[in-house]
Amino acid sequence: MSHIQKLLFIIALLSSSVAFGQLTEDPEDRRDQGKDPFKTQTVDGQPLPFSQRLRFGGGINGFRFGNPFSLGVSPVVGYQATERLIVGIGGTYNYTHYKAPYYTPTTYNQFGVRGFAMYEFIPSILPNLYLHGEVENSSIQVKDDQTSRSNSVGVTAPLVGLTYSQPISRRFGVNLTALYNLNYNDPQGVSQYIYGSPLVIRLSFF
């Protein structure tokens, strides 16, 4: 290999390294300029890699204490599709228990999956406020604690509402969500026992 070929090879290698560095440059650098970081691109306008747009986390929901007792957890994976749109999938587990003497002792175990979308619709007026819509498909195991009889039912719940997100970093925040269950009065009546109200309040971190 001649000296010219070696020089061209080194230049090409350095160029590739610089390009990679630009692609993965942290958008948080914009904070030094007094601006919010980009969510989908680097400071020089290059698109962020897929992995840097992912957001992982989860939360708690369905919390009721006393009789009935209810508590749920919801792991989630989100993707920053655009500067204002987040889409994602998640899982749901919710435990609900009704006790005597006011109710027939019954235990509900809800296992579900959900898909959601969040859109920041008025960032210039109320930044970090998102329209939130999702569909949750659940299998619910119902057990009569007195007879030990159990059965399973399926319920699909479309939910719409708002999420306020308080960013902690570019890919992580604290989210308070209020959703309305459009299928609260499902024919089987199961949603009323699981959720207790058509209004679903959720605290999540992602």
Describe it for me?
It is a single chain. This protein folds into two domains: 48 residues; 156 residues, Porin (Beta Barrel). The longest helix has 21 residues. With 206 residues, it is of the alpha+beta class. It has an eight-stranded antiparallel β-barrel with strand order 1-2-3-4-5-6-7-8. Keywords: Signal.
Number of helices: 3
- Name the average pLDDT: 84
Rg from alpha-carbon coordinates? 24 Å
| Helix residue percentage | 10-25%
Signal peptide: 1-21
Region (Disordered): 25-49
Keywords: Signal
Biased composition (Basic and acidic residues): 28-38
Identify the notable features of this structure and list them briefly.
Outer membrane beta-barrel protein; 2 domains; alpha+beta; 8 strands; Porin; signal; 206 residues
Q: How would you concisely characterize the structure shown here?
A:
The protein has 206 residues and is α+β, with helices and mostly antiparallel strands. Helix content is 15%, strand content 51%. The protein has 3 helices and 8 strands, in the order H-H-E-E-E-E-E-E-E-H-E.
